[in-house]
Amino acid sequence: MFRFDPTYLKLQKLIRMGEAGQPKEGESTRPLVSGGSGESVPASQLFTSLPALNEAASYINQATSYLGSCFSDYSVEYGGQGSCNSISQPHELLRLTSGADGSSPVSVCVTPGQRCSTSSEASTSTAANSPSRESTETLSQSSNAIVTSNGVGGFYGISMFQGLIERARRTVRGSADDIGWLQRDPEMPPVEDGTDRFNKILEDIGHGVHRLPNTLVYLLVPGLFSNHGPLYFVDTKTKFSKLGLACHIAKIHSESSVEKNAREIKEYIEELCWGSNKKVLLLGHSKGGIDAAAALSLYWPDLKDKVAGLVLAQSPYGGSPIATDILREGQLGDYVNLRKLMEIMISKVIKGDIQALEDLTYERRKQFLKNHPLPRELPTVSFRTEASISPAVLATLSHVAHAELPLTNQATKLPVVMPLGAAMAACAQLLQVRYGEKSDGLVTCCDAEVPGSVVVRPKRKLDHAWMVYSSLNEVPLEADAAQVCEALLTLLVQVEEEKQRKAATKND
Q1: Cα separation of 471 and 483, whole Å?
Q2: C-alpha pair distances (Å), 352 with each of 224, 265, 315, 339, 359
């Protein structure tokens, strides 16, 4: 049985409509609207004489200009510069449906200093007083003329469509091309795996063997939003003090830019050295590691005799995909105004600087490390972890603050807890699904490995918040955050001693 194809029927209908619009032999090709003397009225006067059409044409022109401006950054050029196929400014291109003699369409450009023409216009240019040429010149002088065109509409549609595809591609790709750039850069020094040594030190600490010397001052540098977490590093500092170690937490405005915090950390180091006459060992968590590294990079000539080494724990040394996807144009943050919300929250609510988040994007990190690399002679240890995404983390609560209730003569302290583990697991799952990268919830593993450092890669699943906030349901036989910090600093001391021995051997 023969079956009619709907597409075929539609094509036949379009063909009949097109034939109906063509002038037949013997028919007049004069316009429907003419002047009183019988002469044709120019297109600009045609729309003026019909207010309804003029209003509709004006609306179409405004809509076309608006759409053209929306996608002007993503327009596609066809042909060379100055060609009719170049559509870098689609809303400035006008086109005749047909010439006065029923010939092929004629294109004109209303952009000052440019003029486009099709092959049909070139073929009619031999006639000096050709109606088609006169009509073309009239329209080219009128930037307000509205002319429909199937050909330009096709080019413009293709330009818009490819612009949308390009924007969608950049949105989907996100930070995929930036993650792990440190490992791909041939100029970056290689890392050394110190996981086995770290595990041995951590095991000794669990048996009560502590090797951190009291001849150093230990400075803990907190990360982003630490000013709003009263217990940030507090447990670690308390346990260090019980061991008889001089330990301090840098009181910086963590929501400030990296360079501003670097100056404050420099002043902290100089003050500690002046007061104790000891070298300083730094441990920075998250953005705190970036701030501490920036202080040593920018002011190394002044600090090289005052600093013994640096530990970067879960720091986005190469950059953060979370910060980049929020702030970079064309990313997911554009579609929900996330960039504006973050700017309001940081600048207005917590009185910080949006540059603190911008400094963690891949673009800023690449630029900063190119201009201010970390000194090669500085002993460095980097610590990166992977967050658990199992359902068990949903029950994990982090102790972030105390609430005092004056119910009796003595104020009663109640723990303030937050499900940070669940939030980190959700972010880690997002990065795993979108980029195929393992992370602690905020920082990918490869971006936390500092080139030239001794890297610690524990098998234990630890999220980004675990390092600084104690959990209410800690595993009794597992090391806590304070012990992990102690093990990292002990490993750093060993790395420093090895470098000193190597330097002494070279001098001999």
Answers
A1: 14
A2: 10, 18, 20, 15, 13
Q: Residue 323: which of 268, 369, 361 has the closest Cα?
A: 361
446 vs 385: CA distance, rounded Å: 10
Q: Convert the pLDDT of each residue in 3-44 to its tens digit.
A: 445 555 555 555 555 544 455 444 444 444 444 444 444 444
Contact predicate 394/422, CB 8 Å: yes
Q: Is 486 exposed, middle or buried (0-12, 13-18, 19+ CB in 10 A)?
A: buried
- How are beta strands 454-456 and 380-383 bridged, if at all? parallel
Angle between helices 287-298 and 258-276 (to 10 degrees): 70
- In the structure encoding, which two tokens stand for residue 405, read together? 């209730």
116/96 Cα distance (integer angstroms): 12
Q: For residue range 82-99, what is the model confidence (pLDDT) as tens digits? A: 333 333 343 333 343 344
Could you write out the DSSP letters of every residue in 111-134?
STT-----HHHHHHTTSTT-HHHH
